[in-house]
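Supplementary Note 2. Why include the ligand at all?

Several targets in our set were suspected to adopt different conformations when bound, so apo predictions alone were not considered sufficient. For every target with a known small-molecule partner we therefore ran a joint prediction. The input for magnesium ion is given below.
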Amino acid sequence: MVLPRIGHGYDVHRLEAGTGVTLGGVWIDCPYRVIAHSDGDALIHALCDALLGAIAGGDIGHLFPDTDPSYAGIDSRQLLRQVMLRVDGAGYRVGNVDCTVIAQAPRLAPHVGLMRERLAADLGVAPSDVNVKATTPERLDAFGRMEGLAAHAVALLVAKTP
Ligand code: MG
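The joint prediction is reproduced in token form.
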């Protein structure tokens, strides 16, 4: 029996005044924007690193360097799909994933359903295999002051042919 494989990812981005952020592939109107080379989707970046971690495939900073102009402003769902090609190439598929966003604002609850649908489409699973949670930092530290937001993700992969 081939053992399942697990990976963890973490990402953080700085925030500044703006008109909205993209998280989990969903645009959210709010008075902030993420400072990033890509679209700054910290949730997807953490998820990519969890998937890469599970196949011992390095990290997205190595795969998609922020010094490469072709990744400027890129939709992070494109990065996620490229990471999934590597998961597939390694002989695995997603069992389930669990993600947590740490942000004082915006409120994510109204957007979680659409995030799960979009992530599930990119991961090749059902929305019931994708969980997205949000927690606030209780106004503590830099995250509580809205200087940034962070995301964690864990991914369980199972072999395509047992
Ligand atoms: Mg990032």
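The CA atoms of residues 78 and 122 lie 9 Å apart. Strands lie at 5-17, 20-23, 26-29, 32-35, 92-102, 130-135, 148-159. Comparable summaries for the other entries are listed in the accompanying table.
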